Amino acid sequence: MNLPGFIARRYLFAKKSHNVINIVSGISAAGIATGCAALIIILSIYNGFDRIIRTLSDSHTPDLLIQAADGRRFDPAAEPLVALRSEKGVRTTCGTLEEKVYLRYDDRQCVAVAKGVDADYQEVTGLQDYLTEGTFTLVDSTGAPGAVIGRTLALELGLRPVFLSPLEVWFPSRTAEVSLFDPFSALHCETLNPTGIVSLEQGFDKKYVFLPLAVVRRLLEEPQDVSALEVYFSPEALTRRGLVPAAQQKRIAAALGDAFTVKNRHQQNDTVYKLLSYEKIAIYAILLFIVLIISCNIFGSLSMLVIEKQADVKILESMGADRKLTRGIFVREGWYISLLGVAIGTAVGLLVCFLQQQLGLVKMPGNFVVEAYPVVVRLQDVLITVASVSLIGYLAARLARA
To answer: For residue range 63-77, what is the model confidence (pLDDT) as tens digits?
Structure first.
């Protein structure tokens, strides 16, 4: 029989002669419960935002992105790039061409990044799910070239697909001489009809306008080169995390040689994913520090309990109990207070997360892709939180009786 633990459990729920001991113990348990619940809730919210950001990113990020190591454009029809089409699991390869251009719509203008894409890109991209107006097609109803533009750019230009005015795209010619009498003669211009408006997040929406690859090539005077080759795999060929198997990626990179870089989805957005991880670690450390401060209440609770139970201690010592046993009683008492708070906090945190998932009680401010704060509960976060807070409670109890 674990005598110190048995006596500590009796002390935990027994009525004390001084009500202030119960109050301090309750405050200690409530503080730890609040901190534990806050950790679970906030970490779950971070998981929810992480999932949303990854989903938004994956909608326009290829499974593999192949670029020239020196940043120059290249011919996608050259070997060994053509061999990629026969690579196991490859669904399609899309050449893309990006460059900053000048946009003009009626009397408004702005600068954007034109991304030239082919017909295959329209079939594999997930941007169709984020259209606010129109369709993701680069050919209008008359067969003329069309443009899909980011929402922020569309608002800046006052553009909508239902309007009849065309969108003008300008880019300087590399071969024409600049004339002082007619400066515009040194610029290439393409006129397109807006076909759709897409909205992901502000950085994306104010950056991109999607054009047919042939149109961008005419603007840039690039007969066949591309700035990147996007490779899309079938879902069955990807890992559980939605990434190309590392061994296959390395094999493709080795086949292409040092002249090209090959990046998977995670590597293409490495900065964003690292930032999310660092923010999550930072908020976890801050809340854990708050729990550490709250656990100091255990000092006061145990000190008063020791004073009250001096008679019990003397009785135990007269029966042969040593200092280690009596000290262990109060250490366990302090730890049980912490564990009680952990149990309550975990239950409350999981309940709040469940209600938020099902009912969306707390709404997101402004216009966002989701109406309520997203919540994703992960078992590893719950276990880490329970273990960390329990350890802090145990150390606080030991220090209180050191």
So the answer is: 999 999 988 899 888
pLDDT at residue 402 is higher than 50? no
Task: Please indicate, yes or no, whether residues 317 and 393 belong to a single structural domain of this protein.
Answer: yes
Q: Considering the chain, what percentage of its residues have pLDDT values greater than 90?
A: 32
* Reported confidence tier of residue 161, pLDDT bands at 50, 70, 90: confident
Per the CB < 8 A criterion, the answer to whether 374 and 273 are in contact is no
Polymer length of the chain: 402
| Identity of the amino acid at 161 | P
Q: Is residue 83 located within the same domain as residue 227?
A: yes
What are the backbone dihedrals phi and psi of residue 102, each rounded to the nearest 5 degrees, phi first? -105, 125
Look at 12-21, 344-353, 363-372 and tell me which has the smallest mean pLDDT: 12-21
pLDDT on residue 30? 81
Chosen domain end from 265, 296, 324: 265
Work out how many domains the chain is built from and give that number: 2
| 3-class SS string, the chain | CCHHHHHHHHHHHCCCCCHHHHHHHHHHHHHHHHHHHHHHHHHHHHHHHHHHHHHHHHHHCCCEEEEECCCCCECCCCCCCHHHHHCCCEEEEEEEEEEEEEEEECCEEEEEEEEEECHHHHHHCCHHHHEEEECCCCECCCCCEEEEEEHHHHHHHCCCCCCCCCEEEEEECCCCCCCCCCHHHHEEEEEEEEEEEECCCHHHHCCEEEEEHHHHHHHHCCCCCECEEEEEECHHHCCCCCCCCHHHHHHHHHHHCCCEEEEEHHHHCHHHHHHHHHHHHHHHHHHHHHHHHHCCHHHHHHHHHHHHCHHHHHHHHHCCCCHHHHHHHHHHHHHHHHHHHHHHHHHHHHHHHHHHHHHCCCECCCCCCCCECCCCCCHHHHHHHHHHHHHHHHHHHHHHCC
209, 332: one domain: no
For the segment 287-298, what is each residue's pLDDT rounded down to a tens digit? 888 888 877 766
Same domain, 331 and 291: yes
Cα 362 to Cα 46, 54, 353, 380, distances in angstroms: 15, 22, 11, 24
Provide the domain limits for residue 345: 3-57+273-400
Find the angle CA(21)-CA(26)-CA(27) to the nearest 5 degrees. Answer: 100
